[in-house]
Every structure is written in structure tokens, then in C-alpha cells.
Amino acid sequence: MSVKLTVIYDNPADPRAFEEHYRSTHVPLAGKVPGVRRAELAKVFPKEDGSPTPAYRVAELYFDEYGSAVAAIGTPEGKALLDDAQTLGRSGVKFLLCDIER
């Protein structure tokens, strides 16, 4: 069973400051979490009329199994990442730990 941690960031009040922090601080923290097999980082396109969608960015961290994902999140590196995600996602952030069925 593969597992992924999906993090969904709502639209920030200051996209430029969000991006600066995301690239300089948050992404390097994600790289330190043990047991991550793959990471996907994505920026959500705006609607066709240019208005924002309900989400701004999505990050997915993949693990071999549920136990390794939970263990990784519980490490100091995992806790630092989640704490920083909550700081970064002041406008709203959601965490989903998912069983990958296919």
C-alpha cells in the first residue's frame, strides 16, 4: 500500500511573500523529511477569467506505507514541515493522508 500526504494551500493574501517563503524555507524543509519516496509540488492555474480558484498550491509527499508516513510526520523534521505549512498557509491549509488505490 502506498500513501501520500497531500497539502492544499488556499490563496495567500500576499502571493509574492508566499512564493518567497515557499521556495527558500518550506521546500528545503520538505526535503529533510525521512522516508519520502517522491514529492510533487504544483501551483494551481487561475480560472479562465483570471480569478483565483479555491486552492493556490498543492504538495504531495509519497511514502511506502501508512506506518512510515505517520513515523515521518512524527519526526522533528516532519513536525517542522507541518508547523511551517501552518505558518505559510495562514489563509488556509488542509492536510490529507491518503491511501493510494491505483
Written description of the protein model:
This protein is α+β, with helices and mostly antiparallel strands and 102 residues long. It has a single domain (2-100), classed as Alpha-Beta Plaits. Helices cover 36% and strands 28% of the residues. The chain has three helices and four strands, in the order βαββααβ. The protein has a four-stranded antiparallel sheet. The protein is globular. The mean pLDDT is 95.
Task: Describe what is shown at a glance.
It is built from three helices and four strands, in the order E-H-E-E-H-H-E. By secondary structure, it is of the alpha+beta class. Helix 1 runs antiparallel to helix 3.
> What's the total helix number?
3
CATH names the topology as Alpha-Beta Plaits
Write down the CATH class: Alpha Beta
CATH architectural category: 2-Layer Sandwich
Radius of gyration: 14 Å
- Overall shape: globular
